[in-house]
Design brief:
By secondary structure, this protein is α/β, with parallel strands linked by helices. It folds into two domains: about 220 residues, Rossmann fold (3-Layer(aba) Sandwich); about 190 residues, 3-Layer(aba) Sandwich (Rossmann fold), CATH 3.40.50.720. Helices cover about 40% and strands about 15% of the residues. The chain is built from 15 helices and 15 strands. The strands form three sheets. An eight-stranded mixed sheet has the order 3-2-1-4-5-6-7-8, with helices on both faces. α14 links the parallel β13 and β14. The longest helix is centred in the middle third of the chain and has 31 residues. About 45% of the residues are buried.
Length: about 450
Amino acid sequence: MTLSSLVTLRGKIDTNSFTLGVIGLGYVGLPLCLTFLRKGTSVIGFDLDSRKIQRIEKGESYIKHIPSTELAEHVKRGSFTATTDFAQLNRPDALLICVPTPLTKNREPDLQYIEATGRAIAQALRPGQIIVLESTTYPGTTVEILQPILEESGLKAGVDFALAFSPEREDPGNPKFATANIAKVVGGIDALSSELAQKLYKIALETVIPVSSTQIAEMTKLLENIFRSVNIALVNELKILCLRMNISVWEVIEAASTKPFGFMPFYPGPGLGGHCIPIDPFYLTSKAREFDIPTRFIELAGEINSNMPYFVVQRVMEALNQHGKSLKGASLLLLGAAYKKDVDDDRESPTYKLLDLLLEKGAHVGYNDPHIPTLRPGRMHSYNLTSTPLTAENLRATDCVIVATNHSAYDYDFILEHSKLIVDTRNVFTGKKGAAEKVIMS
């Protein structure tokens, strides 16, 4: 086989007459599908979760910021189909891999989903396809792990098929940035793979940033999230110190933010959540060990952020003690199961760790989240809870309310009026009348 198949692929991409396949229809994959569909690209979605496929077939979105009405139009038109049948991976001309890259219990990279997806593609791979890995991982994964698996098909990367890495950049709930207007970093295993990947993304995304290799693209994503992790750890540590010194860290951050250069505000909280910041730094620290390089700064940041739920529980204990209550047997209500404000995404949410710790100490714990009506058993937890309605009666019956996520939908004046005691990890009650008597900052 010669490069002619990739030349043919270039022509299909240039005329937007190709079929796109997206593997993994979660918070990264489904928005990507919709972004390309809006540009007239034919899309096939692949996922092992049959419930997602069934909902797509009905034109229903299962992600809050993806509109069902628009999704249904593409399904009805036939431009968007979805399947659990990975034998059909030979149908798309381009495949984007958007599968999870979690950590093991020992905080080591878990690449099982990338490897399994690679093997599934290899069984169906044909000449003239391009494969792009979007899942966050350590530098070298694309060429050291994925490429050899794909070449088990007998086809050669860069000759029979193109291969690239382009890190996902999603910020659910952000009203200013969506998939289409977030700059896309792209690096291929060779010049042709890079060119084809750039052309592919330019169809649907406003800005594409080429880099010289897949390793550069992989490291770029890690730097982005390690930068955030380290700075969040800094303000989390300062929050603990400021509380001890009776200083408002929130007012300090607000004042520092007036500097027009050299400062970027980050905000403390009850811990880190989401699929990126709590996980990605450990992909680099693991890889660094192969080169005998300690990444103490990164690991310290991870340690500080991981310890924040323990600090919150300590503050809850202190708050209850001040009101003559013990944590054991206390009735507690956690506000927010999502990992960030105004989203329906509970991946790696610190609320789960708070639940673990509070239940271990004998408390009775419920939760409320307007975006997540039920907590279902998942990879890292086994809770099966339903959101507690925020009624005046339920609030009065609760010994302590803990603000874990500062959703805009919450009526904080109502919560303050009817609660006995509140531990606020998000600074939502500062300045409210009556807060001084009921609210403990954490």
